[in-house]
Request: fold
Amino acid sequence: MINTIKNLSQSVLYINTEKELKEKVLSIENTKSELVIKSSKTMTESQINEYFNLIDSLDYKIYDSFPFDNINDCVGPLDKNEFTYFIQNVSNNGNFLCVHKDNIKKYNLPNKIKDKTCVIVFGRNDGYKEKERFIIHITRMLETFDEVIYVDWNSEKRSFLYEIIDDIPKTGRLKHFVIEPKIAKILENYDPNAQACSTVFSFNIGIRRTDAEYIVLSTTDIIPPTKEILEEFIKKTNKHTMYVLSRRDIDYKDVINNKDNLNDYIDYLNRTSKPRYFPAKVTPNDNYSLFNCCGDFQFATKNIWLKVKGYEEQMKYACFVDTNVQKKSVLYGFKLKDIYDVPLYHMSHTGMSNDGSSPSKQFYNNAMDWVEYFDKYVENNQILISRNEDSWGFSETEIEYEII
Reply:
């Protein structure tokens, strides 16, 4: 059963015009009632700004609740720029929930810390990745991002992070989730063909449990751009585009040979390496992959990730999940942009390709279903896109984690 806005309290006020909002300001200030405001794509930017400024002046936060007015799957809080874009391009003629800042925790609504960055990665203690590779990866991610979320999925032995725990910095910014095999089986609905190390569930768990404004999804073979380079890149971005950054390939042996002077080595690569252009299509009409291995470094605001509902959780098998989420971003009304001039590096490896040697690549998602033919659909007279449940990312499940 959908937990609708109407179920929040008996005092929800439905506001259809900015004039009506102004008339009820005194009552709103006194009661801190929840508001639902009706938007229209015919609203001018000036009208939208007036709406936002008035709501903001009352210390209310704005959430997109379109299409079902569902409290369990709200997107926000939205700033003025996002509010304008959502009305004009994403939630046309939709409803927006407005909640006083004091009540956000009461209703378990998402929140965000302005300008905070987070990277989400996942792995498994199965012998396919070297410890030194993981040490370098986690250490560099901690240097670049304000928060690092590592989800260890289905390790038969202890979490892979515990194998290197003595060799990584203790910053208090690494959030560690452990999904043990017995729990993984339950979350995968006992599907024997699901990935041994789940991409979709791991990423979605992280997306639902960070308060960062900017979220990157990445893999444990990546050395990220420096913090300074990432911050300069963010300054050039907008909040209504999903950005896909193309990696640059480097030999893992070279990384290890330079591990004692890794900063100098990366600085050298930043000056001398060239962008990697590797156009790819996984289906005849795929205009969304942009390049091969587009899932190595996907960057978007938290509100984009929330609106597209993360990765599709029916895609429990290998491949095409990154292309699918990029197509979803376009279907939802966001823009999609490929980036080549921000240097990040992929440490080479063997045994993890599509040759059948990887335990996580035994069964594959159907590219035609999830890329070529994936599109909008109608349910209960509403146009929908994601097939995920409202509780995607197991948002209603308390999952323990530790801070390292």
